[in-house]
Specification:
The chain is built from 3 helices and no strands. It is mainly α and 75 residues long.
Length: 75
């Protein structure tokens, strides 16, 4: 039984264990492909901040166009 147990242990470590580990991580990867709720909230917050910043930049450009019409040519 000692040699048979050794052969079965080696067979398990060489064939079954690597396949088991690979399938385990494939399953983990597939379950985490989407965004989490926290990631979605963060993305929405960043989107809102970027929209506010874009509005501010447009307002500043309108003010500069009114105050110094040639400011774009100086750049």
């Amino acid at each position: 039984m000692g040699f048979l147990g050794f052969v079965l242990a080696v067979l398990f470590l060489v064939v079954v264990a690597p396949v088991w580990i690979v399938f385990h991580y494939i399953t983990k990867w597939r379950s985490q492909r989407g965004l989490s709720a926290q990631d979605e909230r963060l993305l929405a917050e960043l989107w809102e901040i970027s929209n506010r910043l874009e509005t501010r930049v447009q307002a500043l450009e309108r003010v500069l166009d009114a105050e110094a019409p040639n400011w774009r040519n100086k750049l």
